[in-house]
Amino acid sequence: MSRVLIVDDEPGIREVLSDILEDEGYTTFTAEDGVSAMQVLRTEPIDVVLLDVWLPNRGGIDVLSDIKETYPETEVIIITGHATIDLAVKAVKRGAFDFLEKPLSMDRVTTIVRNADRLEQLRRENQSLKASLHPYDAIIGSSGPMRTVLELVEQSAGSDARILITGDNGTGKELIAREIHFRSRRRDRPFVAVNCAAIPDTLLESELFGHEKGAFTGASHARRGKFEMAHTGTIFLDEIADMSIAAQAKVLRVIQELRFERVGSEDSLHVDVRIIAATNKDLSEEVAARRFREDLFFRLNVIPVQMPALRERLEDIPELAKYFLERFAETRGAADRRFTDEAIAALQAHPWPGNIRELKNLVERVTIMCDDVEISGDVVRSLLGEPVGAAGFAEFADYEGLTLNEAKDEFERRLIHRKLSEHDYNITRTAEHLGLYPSNLHGKIRKLGIQVDR
């Protein structure tokens, strides 16, 4: 339900506009002058403002400037009884959406408010769409541990219950948080992610709760914080165990009261957000060591989700490797590729301390460093920095002193030359044996300077 603020010094106009807009389904707030209007904006997220030009103490055009400076995404409709070209130009330059002339036509009021609200909603939907179209990875995996996680996602997404996601780095905690959001009733509202470990402690409070102009050195403008940006949506507090005790206390208050103050302000701001938190630490141990507030832990840990390490879901590796290989090959315009059974076995034998993130990085390296359609176990082991079997590189000593690219080129040169010889330098048969297209083989012959004897 969108929120409209009506700013006019005439009580009768405020009352009539409120009644009309509430009949249209809007939630309305009123203010008699610019000072009280800014007070409402500081304490309630407003979508559209109806602003009279002639106000006591501070004129409507100046109040318009104040609103657009502090709340640039809020649409402002000017109300005036004396519309002039000069006034119109001045208002548009300062960010007004449209004009309403007195005496007010109620049909025109509802039409312009609806248009302004629609523009605000489209802007929010666009932000949400951009977030949903961001090239985040799909959730891949059918192993027992992943089925447990996905069942929790399915059961919890439709509620507003707070969720605590735990697990090692690289296991996909943010991916799960986004999946919960996009399956929830808040899917069309903002998803705001905050990496608490990446923000200096001195700036974290301002980042989370915003600040007023002049609150500290360098605060030249008022700024909305992450909680305010996430209003009606979801805020994801990643690495929450890295947050200071002081910041934890303020987050606890937001959870309890759904209110907070910007830095430098004494005015309380209401917010409606769903909180999803994540950490790679054991919060029970952090609580015991007095590094994390026990009351905050219990508040966050309504629905716990434990992300399994990759070593605990080895049966998902073939599907994950295939997914990443297809994704990277597609972006580079490469032909269809696949890991051999030996390569999959090598992947499953690796301990994966970096979890899925490490696997993803390895597959990207494979697509850059190896042009073979069939990716062998030796290629995988070499890129993992593990010993390579003699069967894969019988002449490994010949590659000592070469860079990886130089060694790869030399190996391909020898292999292609030998296969050409075995197939009487028939390009089509050689390409088929190597799993390449003839055009690709021609390109490699030229690139590697291979002499074709006929």
Q: Would you kindly provide a written description of the structure presented here, covering whatever features stand out?
A:
- With 454 residues, the chain is of the alpha/beta class.
- The chain has three domains: 129 residues, Response regulator (Rossmann fold, 3-Layer(aba) Sandwich); 172 residues, 3-Layer(aba) Sandwich (Rossmann fold), CATH 3.40.50; 137 residues, Helicase, Ruva Protein, domain 3 (Orthogonal Bundle), CATH 1.10.8.
- It is 48% helix and 13% strand.
- It is built from 19 helices and 14 strands.
- Strands 2-1-3-4-5 form a five-stranded parallel sheet, sandwiched between helices. It has a five-stranded parallel sheet with strand order 7-8-11-6-12.
- The longest helix has 28 residues.
- The protein starts with a strand and ends in a 6-residue tail after the last helix.
- About 1% of the residues have low confidence.
Keywords:
454 residues; Helicase, Ruva Protein, domain 3; 13% strand; five-stranded parallel β-sheet; elongated; 19 helices; Rossmann fold; alpha/beta; 14 strands
What name does CATH use for the topology of the largest domain? Rossmann fold
The level 1 CATH classification of the largest domain is Alpha Beta
Major sheet strand order: 2-1-3-4-5
Shape: elongated
Instruction: Point out poorly predicted stretches.
Output: 390-395
| Helical coverage, percent range | 40-55%
How far apart are the first and last residues' alpha carbons, in Å?
78 Å
The number of distinct β-strands equals 14
Tally of helical segments = 19
Q: Cα-atom Rg, whole angstroms? A: 30 Å
CATH superfamily of the largest domain: P-loop containing nucleotide triphosphate hydrolases
Let me know the largest β-sheet: 5 strands, parallel
Structural class per helix/strand content? alpha/beta
Strand residue percentage: 5-15%
Query: Mean pLDDT, as a whole number?
Result: 86
| Count of all domains | 3
Quickly give the CATH architecture of the largest domain: 3-Layer(aba) Sandwich
